[in-house]
Amino acid sequence: MFRKSKAAVDVATLFCAVALGFLTAACTCAPARPVLKVLTFRDRQSSALRSVLPEFEKTSGVRVQFDDIPAGTVATKMMTDLAAGGTYDIYAVDEPFIPQFQEHLLPLSQWPDPLSAAELSLFEPKALEAATVGSALIGLPVNGNVYQYIYRKDLFESELEKLKFKERFKRELRPPATLEEMIQIAQFFHRPPKLYGFAPFTKMSEGTTVEYLWLMAASGSLLSTQTRSVTLTDIQSALQNYSELLKTAPASARSWHHTERMSAYSKGKIAQMMTWNSFFFDLEDEHKSLMVGRTGYSKSPGTSATGLAGTWIAGVRKGSSQLATASAFIRWWTSRPINEALVLKGLSSARSDILTHPTLSQTFPWLKSTHINFENAFLRPRHKNYRATSDEISLAFTRWIAGQSPDNDSALALQTALNRLKSLSLDQTARTEAR
Q1: Is the pTM here over 0.85, yes or no?
Q2: Do 332 and 364 sit in the same domain of this protein?
Q3: Burial status of residue 389 (CB atoms within 10 A of its CB: 0-12, 13-18, 19 or more)
Q4: Which of 75, 111, 135 is closest to 318 using CA atoms?
């Protein structure tokens, strides 16, 4: 058997010692960069932000661990992480769930470098309201989403369609100012199987809660400002309005989520609908839509605030060891230069100066309408147990849509759920203000 000589062993030992010395020196001279951990939602906007992260990393010397997951699972992931003591420095939180996580997020007044009043004034006021619990602003808006009205502009501008519409309804064809006008437009353009008057949201989820709260607001019952309890008459009137809209939707639309309804619209089969502005970027993409240049963006119909704001915020976790870096990252994320760059890639900005930017508005016509709808938006009544009450509303509404529950029973179930939502929201506000 071959044996190593003593000299060979000594050389090998010396080599290992020298190599270890080099490794030790390298570790001493180049310590690992600090890591900033961010938990957010996954969509086109998070992909856009990921593309510019190297800019922040180069400037700050910090490595960003950017974990983006499906939007519907972010709140659950946050609860799990916080139960384990909290490992993320920054959390993105959807508007209705902000009160649930309020105690874990550092108010902006306690940030190492808080924003001035002048800086805050550049954000949409309703987006800042979404980021506020009581009197405490606990994050900055990173996604300015508003549930709003869109329509087939090419149909509305057709001289023949305008003439026929005026003959039938004795008024001009234009974006609706009221829900009643929206129903008339839906009836006019209902021409199956090639064209339908309306695309509903009917799949049980937070989306049906949003659709129902918009319906109540458009029917004259705005929960966020209404002090009286919701009556059965209010609910029955709203359901009757929606029943008329459903008559003009495809038969398959009794179980539609965003994917199905946006697909139908992008193929030119829907005359009008309510949806989130985060979908508009794809509507103007010739690879994904037949509606490029053919969609109109307008103020949502209704005599009061009828656009629903669904803003996501980014907040700093209390107890983070990197408070200064975390707050600096959020300031960078929400800054005008970064927003200007990300709008080109699909960002839904919550900054007024971006939404009203004259050049950007020419390229992205929905920015101006988003600003207008922000000014006329309302927020969902919020409290720590929002998820449970939202599920109650969604279940009652979808059962009614599917014909599984009689009108009277559905109205009673919705009244109970809505009044609980309203009551818990008022209790949450009172408790917060009493602190």
Answers
A1: yes
A2: yes
A3: buried
A4: 111
